[in-house]
Design goal:
Blueprint lengths: L32 H37 L21 H12 L12 H16 L2 E4 L4 E3 L2 H11 L33 H18 L1
Antiparallel strand pairs: 1-2
């Protein structure tokens, strides 16, 4: 039940509002200095403890690395690289780096998403699959196109392998069957199809 009426006056029997003495014009109570001092001391202790813990961890890590590296000898020397400052760039060294980068042996880092590399691979494979080439000139072995190889296999058939001895099937087992693939296993990528369409359009434009 509210204790105030619509005119802002307390109803009979309600709690009396707290009376504030504003005659001085300022607050008569100060900030809790003890609480602020305790908080600052706790903060300083936390910062000091964190710094000490980091120092101990770093010292242990450096000691472990020094034990693994061993003491300095005539072949090792501790150098302060900060004394060297910023070294000027050497044009001759930059040219050597550029030459090494251009002639870097394979495999190189791909400069694109690899579509051109796949297209080049398929082009090399197509040359081997669609043309005659020597396998061993000395022994007279020749690689024939795949279409011709398929014709020869269709005419002569494949060599028949001897029947393998198979164990009797267990209860519930079935003889595995191998289905023929729907394709020959080679399909151009979308990038290669786009390149082929662009080449056809270029030829048509040139013919017009």
């Amino acid at each position: 039940m509210p204790t105030h009426n619509e005119h802002g006056q307390n109803e009979p029997g309600g709690p009396e509002p707290e009376k504030v003495d504003a005659s001085a014009g300022y607050e008569r109570t100060d900030t809790n200095v003890t609480g602020v001092a305790v908080f600052m001391i706790a903060l300083l202790i936390l910062v000091a403890a964190t710094g000490g813990l980091c120092y101990i961890i770093g010292a242990r890590l450096n000691a472990h690395l020094n034990r693994e590296d061993g003491p300095n000898s005539k072949w090792t020397k501790t150098a302060d690289v900060r004394q060297l400052g910023n070294l000027p760039s050497n044009p001759e060294l930059q040219n050597k780096i550029a030459t090494l980068t251009q002639n870097f042996p394979t495999p190189r880092v791909q400069t694109d998403d690899g579509n051109q590399d796949v297209a080049n691979l398929h082009a090399r494979e197509s040359l081997l699959l669609d043309n005659y080439s020597w396998v061993d000139r000395g022994s007279g072995k020749v690689r024939i196109p795949i279409d011709r190889a398929m014709q020869l296999i269709a005419q002569r058939g494949l060599p028949v392998a001897p029947a393998a001895e198979t164990a009797p099937l267990m209860t519930g087992d079935s003889k595995p069957t191998v289905t023929m693939p729907l394709t020959n296993g080679f399909a151009p990528t979308a990038y290669e199809q786009e390149q082929a369409e662009a080449a056809v359009k270029t030829q048509q434009t040139a013919a017009k």
